[in-house]
Amino acid sequence: MEIQIQYLLLLQHFREATGGIFDGFFLSVTWFGEVLIPVCIMAIIYWGINKKAGTFIFFTFGLTLYTNVFLKMTACIKRPWLLDSRVCPIETALPAADGYSFPSGHTAGAMALWGSIAYKWWNNRLIRYSMITIILLVAFSRNYIGVHTPQDVIVSIAAGILIIFAGERLLKWVDAKKNRDIVFYCLIMALIFLLYLYLHIKCSIQMTSYNPLEDCVNPLAMKHGSYSKIGFMTGIFTGWILEKRFVNFDVISGSVKKKIISILAGLIVLQIISALIYKTGLYIMPGHIVSALCAFITAFYIIFLFPFVFKKFVNH
Length: 316
Known about the structure:
Number of strands: 0
Strand content: under 5%
Radius of gyration: 20 Å
Number of helices: 12
Structural class: mainly alpha
Number of domains: 1
Largest sheet: none
Order of helices and strands: HHHHHHHHHHHH
Shape: globular
Helix content: over 70%
Oligomer: single chain
C-alpha cells in the first residue's frame, strides 16, 4: 500500500507544481464514468444504432454494477486520504467520492460502457483505440484527483474485461434455446435479492460497532447508496425480458434526422419522467427508495417503455 500512496503523492505534487492547470481536464474526464453520460450513450446505441450491441452493453453494465456493489461492501476499504493523511484529493471531487474506495465505480462504469463498445466494434481501429483511451483516462483521472488508489482502478479494469467476455457468452447461451431467457431472468432476480439480503445483513452487523465520531464511512449510508444500483439492475433485466417477449423492437428506421429527433425526444421525456418521480416521490418515500425507483424507471424506460411506445404508435 505504501507504494500506491507514494504514487498518489507524486501525482499530488505534480498538481501543486503545475498550479492545478490539469485539474479541470481530469475532473471532466471522470464524467465519462458517471451515470448520465453512459445512460445516454447506451440509449442512443440501443434505440438508433444496433439493438443487439445495445443489449450486450446493458448486460455488461448490469453485471458490472452487481460486482462493484458486492466488492465494495465486502472489502470495505477506506478512501486514500483516510488511509494516509498526506493524501489531499481535489476538494471539488469529494462530494462524489463518499463511501468505500475499492473498487473504483467510475472505472468500472467506463469499462462496462466504453469497453463493451470497443469489444463490439473491435475491427474498427478508430473506435477501438478511442474507447481504450477513454477507459485509461478515466482510470488515471481517479488517481490524479486523489480519490482512488491504483489497485482500485486496476481491479475494476480486470473485472470489467472478465465481465465483458462473460456477458457475451451468457447472451449466446440465453439465445441458444427457447425459454432460457426466463431461466436467466429468474436466476438474476434471485441473485439481486440475495445481494440486497447480503447488504442488509452486512450493514446490520457493521452498525452494531459503528461510531459516528470515529468511523468515516456510515454502513447504513453505504447500503442506501447501493439501492439506486440495485434499482437500475432490476430495470435492465426486467425491461429486457419484457421487450424480448412482447415487443421485439428494432432500431429506429428512416433518415438520420428522424433518428436524432426520436432519440432526443425519448431522452427528454425520460428526463421529465425521472424529475417528476423524484420530486413527488420525496414527499412520500425516503430518498434512497426514490433514487432506486428513478434508477429502475430509467433502465426500464430505455429498454422496454420507449421501444414499446415507438413501435406501437410511431413506427406502426
